[in-house]
Amino acid sequence: MSNFKQILVVGGAGYIGSHIVHDLCDAGYSVTIFDNLSTGLIENLDPRAEFFQGDILQLPDLQKAFSKPVDVVFHFAALKAAGESMLIPEKFSTNNITGTINLLNIMQAHAVKYIVFSSSAAVYGNPQYLPIDEKHPLQPINYYGYTKLVIEQVLDWYDRLKGLRYAALRYFNATGYDVKGRIRGKEKNPGNLSPIIMEVAAGTRPILQVFGDDYHTPDGTCIRDYIHVSDLAEAHLLAMNYLVEKEKSLIVNLGTGRGYSVLEMLETARKISGLPIPHTIGPRRPGDPPELYADCQLAAKLLQWKAKYSSVEQIIESMCHVYLG
Ligand code: WQD
Predict the structure, then answer these.
(1) Quick check: is 260 catalytic?
(2) What's the pLDDT score for residue 2?
(3) 285 CB less than 6 Å from ligand 1?
(4) 275 forms bridges with which residues in the sheet?
(5) Cβ(278) to ligand 1 under 6 A?
(6) Which class in CATH covers the domain with range 193-225+257-323?
(7) Which residues does residue 73 pair with via DSSP β-bridges, in sequence order?
(8) Angle, alpha carbons 273-276-282 (nearest 5°)
C-alpha cells in the first residue's frame, strides 16, 4: 500500500506523541489524535489534526475511532513511571497491557495492519554489556519495562498469526523539546532528570537532588543515552515507511550511542541558562545502573536514521525555550 494517508495517533496529546503528530501533519498526512488527556495536554494538540477524546480501556471509544478509515496506528498511550510500576503493578497491567490488547484487537477487526509502537530500553534491564544492541538479553528490572516487553511479544505473535506489521522502537532516555518550538506543554510532576533540572532552573522546584555520586563513572554520577524527542519523531516516520514499503516488522533501539552523566547535564544547563540551578548529593536511587547507552547501528541500517539534535547543548537549549521562555 503506497498511498496510506489516514493516521491514528493513540496518546497523541502526550510528550512524545505530540511531537510525532506535528511531523505527520507537516508531511501531509491526515491525522486523528486519540487521547484520554490523563497526562496528555490540550495545548500540545496540532490544530491540523482531528482530536478524539477517548480511552483505550473503553471499547466503545475505540469502535468510534475506527469507524473512519485508518491506515496506520501510532501507539504512545502508556504509564511510564518505572518506580510507580513497582508499587502499583495492577495499574500498569491494565493501562499498558490490557489497553494495548484492546487496540490490537480492534485493529484486527478493521483490517488495520500497521502499528508503530513506543517501546523502551527498559526491556533490557541491567546492561550485561555496552553498548546495548537489540540482541541484548531481555530482563526488565521494573514492571513498567516488563509491560513493554509483554506488548512486544504480543505484537510478534500478531505478526506471525495475523500478518500485523509492527515497529517496536526502544527509546533510551527521551528528552528535549521540539526543535521548531511548536510544542510547549510541560509535563506535570516529572520524574526524569532533564525536566527536573529545568524546573529548578525556572524556580518551580527548589533544588535538584543528585541520586548518588559514588558510581564507577568518570564523575561518579550515572550515565544515560539522552535522545532528543525531535530525533525520535523523525525515526517514527521512517519506521512507518519501512513497515508499509517492506511489509516487514522491525525492532530497533533509538539512542545516540553515547552517554552523558547527571553532572554533565546539570553543568550544561547552568552554562546555557546562566542560572545557578542548586543541587545536593543524595543517596543512590534503587535500580539505577551506573551506565546505559545504545548501539543504534540497526536503526541506521534499516531506517537510514541517526540522531542529529541530541547533543547535550541542543537538548538543554530546546528545553530552556519552554521552561525559561
Ligand atoms: C536519569 C539519571 C537518575 C532524577 C527512566 C525510566 C526508563 C525510561 C526513561 C520510559 C539517573 C538521575 C534523576 C533526579 C537524579 N522511561 N536522577 N535526580 O531512570 O534512566 O530511565 O526514564 O521509557 O524506563 O526508568 O531516567 O531521568 O529518571 O534518570 O539524579 O531528580 O538521572 O538517578 O541516573 P532513567 P531518569
Answers:
(1) no
(2) 52
(3) yes
(4) none
(5) no
(6) alpha beta
(7) 8, 115
(8) 120
- Rounded Cα gap, residues 322 and 325, in angstroms: 6
User: Which residue has the CA at smallest separation from atom 1 of ligand 1?
Assistant: 193
Q: Which of 143, 144, 171, 323 is catalytic?
A: 144
Q: Where are the domains of the chain?
A: 6-175+227-254, 193-225+257-323
Q: Are strands 260-261 and 223-224 parallel, antiparallel or unpaired?
A: antiparallel
Q: Does ligand 1 have an atom closer than 6 angstroms to the CB of 294? A: no
Single pTM value for the model: 0.97
Max CA separation in the chain (angstroms): 56
* Residue 209 CB–ligand 1 contact under 6 Å: yes
Burial per residue of 131-143, b for 16 or more beta-carbon CB atoms within 10 angstroms, e otherwise: bbebebeeebbbb
Top mutation candidate among 224, 226, 293 for ligand 1, by most atoms within 8 Å of CB = 224
Residue 1 pLDDT grade (very low, low, confident, very high; cuts 50, 70, 90): very low
**Residue 53: what residue type?**
Q
Give the fold, CATH level 3, of 6-175+227-254: Rossmann fold (3.40.50)
Nearest-CA residue for ligand 1 atom 7 is 122
pLDDT tens by residue, 174-208: 999 999 999 989 998 999 999 999 999 999 999 99
